[in-house]
Design a protein that fits this description.
With 200 residues, the protein is an alpha+beta fold. The chain has a single domain, classed as C8orf32 fold (Roll). The protein is built from five helices and nine strands; from the N terminus they run αβααβαβαββββββ. The strands form two sheets. Strands 1-9-8-4-5-6-7 form a seven-stranded antiparallel β-sheet. A two-stranded parallel ribbon has the order 2-3. The longest helix is centred in the first third of the chain and has 22 residues. The two termini are 32 Å apart.
Length: 200
């Protein structure tokens, strides 16, 4: 058996085990609060690409998390993390907070935009794919993609190849896109779930 096949099998087993663990856990979703400020990078993206911020959805609830969807989340998270080389906005554009689709390189929000686009192309509703701003343990800001599912909110992250329940990450969750309007942002009122999450 080749090394490549061994890696593929190990990945498949890990995905199955994670999904089994997820299925046994009680869903604990983020709680959205009042409307809050839109990140400047997202605002500027909306000015350049209005379609990014005009997605309005009815409150239809979270998407059903099937084994097939779980595999897709893991695959897309890994694919984008491998395809995009990390580079800061300052290095790419000479200034901070430029949100754009990655062309082989990008920073955290660029990874998020690409993952969101690929999942929407698969048919997932915009209202279940929410760009989310968090604070890392070192105090630095960061962006991740929250996927709202029937088994809770899961995080796709360029700093982590595992797709984790949001309560299992080490982040403090600050705000995210509204699930009803992709151009609006809401505060997360129970965003300190890291206190009960695992510590690496």
């Amino acid at each position: 058996m080749t090394k490549f096949n061994c890696i593929k099998i190990a990945t498949a087993i890990a995905s199955t085990l994670m999904f089994t663990h997820v299925g046994q856990a009680a869903p604990r979703a983020m709680v959205a609060g009042d409307r809050t400020t839109q990140p400047i990078g997202h605002y500027e993206l909306c000015q350049q690409m209005p379609s990014e911020c005009s997605q309005k959805t009815r409150r239809t609830g979270a998407v059903e998390l099937t084994r097939a969807l779980w595999k897709d989340l893991v695959r897309i998270n890994n694919d984008v993390n491998e395809e995009v080389a990390p580079l800061t906005d300052q290095q790419m554009w000479g200034r901070e907070e430029v949100w754009s689709y990655p062309q082989g390189q990008g920073d955290c929000e660029d990874y998020v935009l690409e993952k969101r686009k690929r999942l929407m192309k698969m048919g997932l509703p915009a209202g279940n794919l929410l760009i989310t701003v968090v604070r890392q343990r070192n105090g630095a800001g960061h962006a991740v993609l929250t996927v709202r599912t029937s088994l809770g909110d899961f995080i796709l992250d360029n700093l982590e190849n595992k797709v984790l329940d949001w309560t299992e990450t080490e982040y403090t969750y600050l705000k995210r896109q509204s699930d009803r309007n992709s151009g609006a942002w809401v505060a997360i009122t129970n965003g300190t779930a890291t206190a009960v999450g695992s510590v690496k």
